[in-house]
Amino acid sequence: MGDEILQETECTQTQTQKSQVDWSQPNTPSFIPVIWGRLYSTRVSLNERNCWKDTCLDNPPYYDLIQPEFSLGRSFTCTFVMRKEIINESIVKSVSKQHFIIKRNLSEPLSPAIITDLSFNGTFINGKAIGKGLSRVLDDNDRISVTHPNAKIFIYKDLLKNEQDKVPKEISKKYYISRILGQGACGLVKLVYDKTKCTKHAMKIIKKCRLTNGEVNNLTDPQRIMNEVNIMKALRHPCIVSTEEVFDTSDTVYIILELMQGGELFDRISKYGQLSEQLTKFYFRQMVVAVKYLHSQGITHRDLKPENVLLESKDEETLVKITDFGLSKYVGEDSFMKTVCGTPLYLAPEVLRANGQNCYGPDVDVWSLGVIFFVCLVGYLPFSTDYKELSLRDQILRGQYRYSNKHWSKISLPAKLLMKRMLTVNVKNRITLDQILNHTWMQDSITLMKIERLLMQAAQVRDFDQLTLSSQNSDEENNNSDKVTVLKVAVAGKRGLSDNCAPCEPIAKRLRIDACAMTRIQKDDISTTNSCSSTD
């Protein structure tokens, strides 16, 4: 018995070695085709008769989709040719030469297949007509019909789609869930596709979690989450990230957002080290316009930073939009902000001085804009825990920012003066948003024209007029067994929100300053503790 096992083991090892040798041969195919989808023939049909002819032996049970395009029709140029030998003649005679085409971008990870109707007599998905010349996203288990909703010929299987997220059915019916775009302390962001419009969106997933000791987790406090949701629903401006839809369940909030494909301003600065004055002016004016809009709506952002400023496209000159309103607050006549919140590196002095007791106003956003402005122009932070002369708190309270002659020598005097006026400790002397827009440095007719053109184009694509708030409750069971409230994008009336915002969030990502650059800054002959104070 032992000899048989030994012989079997030796035989297995020999086969493995032979297999490894065979695979190493030059004539072995190096490319293994990826089957991204499969079309299963279905027997459900018009008038309870099979669409496919049972007598045809050439009709396989399914068809593998390997190439990025699959076409169906009567034309011999189609990938799948509809012939009366394999399908009922009553259906074939109504099929167009090119009836529909399915495409999939295999270079984009987890992108969906898109089906386009090219026919005169209709292509149907799950019984609903697509429309000639129109497209829609093809999802797993979708039923494809031609010429009539009941003439179901295929069931589509998506072989590249990851496991379906446990999202409410209201979401999975409308959106195709794709890859992860990002993840932070407050939630997960995924790329999703609107199945009907074939448009891309970002879906922010926020769990309403609690800590094990029963205390509320500030980053996922339900009250804080709904604070963000209420604010986002109310905002409609070209320089504010739009909220398309909100799905609220008992334990999770799903926010469908406008997709910003240009990434964060943080990454754009990191890529170039610093931005030119011209490009800074182009981006910064849009930021100021957006913040001015927020303030006009009685909203203070309180967490402005390069990570919360997004770019619409990868183009250099693109729309800039502000996002992440988790720390924002409506400010009315009887509402005053007291909580210490925001990202420490961008906090205004009055926020630190408030210490949860005293009040501060919307001017805190001007200070944060000043820090962003500083970083855009020279590529390093004005205040940081890396600067050891003073604590971060004292640096901010005294307005003693790190000033490097080497970096600022290339910057124009009006830009320096504007920076100084924004990073002024005394709120009464700090520049206002209107004064920033009218500042000498901001007056550039070419930049103004470019921004105006972008804003007009955005207004044509999206309607920024007031919308109506509507909500509906769904009793249909979903994967989470929760009741889902769908909140359409709307302008809600201003409402007083709780003062129980989260305290400080974790310190944000640091700008990538190489060691040599940091050394140059620290050795600069300008004192960081005396001459850079801006308390006027």
TrEMBL record:
<dbReference type="InterPro" id="IPR000253">
    <property type="entry name" value="FHA_dom"/>
</dbReference>
<dbReference type="Pfam" id="PF00069">
    <property type="entry name" value="Pkinase"/>
</dbReference>
<dbReference type="InterPro" id="IPR008271">
    <property type="entry name" value="Ser/Thr_kinase_AS"/>
</dbReference>
<dbReference type="GO" id="GO:0005524">
    <property type="term" value="F:ATP binding"/>
</dbReference>
<dbReference type="InterPro" id="IPR008984">
    <property type="entry name" value="SMAD_FHA_dom_sf"/>
</dbReference>
<protein>
    <submittedName>
        <fullName>Ovarian-specific serine/threonine-protein kinase Lok</fullName>
    </submittedName>
</protein>
<feature type="domain" description="FHA">
    <location>
        <begin position="70"/>
        <end position="130"/>
    </location>
</feature>
<dbReference type="InterPro" id="IPR011009">
    <property type="entry name" value="Kinase-like_dom_sf"/>
</dbReference>
<keyword id="KW-0067">ATP-binding</keyword>
<keyword id="KW-0547">Nucleotide-binding</keyword>
<keyword id="KW-0418">Kinase</keyword>
<dbReference type="GO" id="GO:0004672">
    <property type="term" value="F:protein kinase activity"/>
</dbReference>
<dbReference type="Pfam" id="PF00498">
    <property type="entry name" value="FHA"/>
</dbReference>
<feature type="compositionally biased region" description="Low complexity">
    <location>
        <begin position="8"/>
        <end position="17"/>
    </location>
</feature>
<feature type="region of interest" description="Disordered">
    <location>
        <begin position="1"/>
        <end position="25"/>
    </location>
</feature>
<feature type="domain" description="Protein kinase">
    <location>
        <begin position="175"/>
        <end position="442"/>
    </location>
</feature>
<dbReference type="InterPro" id="IPR000719">
    <property type="entry name" value="Prot_kinase_dom"/>
</dbReference>
<keyword id="KW-0808">Transferase</keyword>
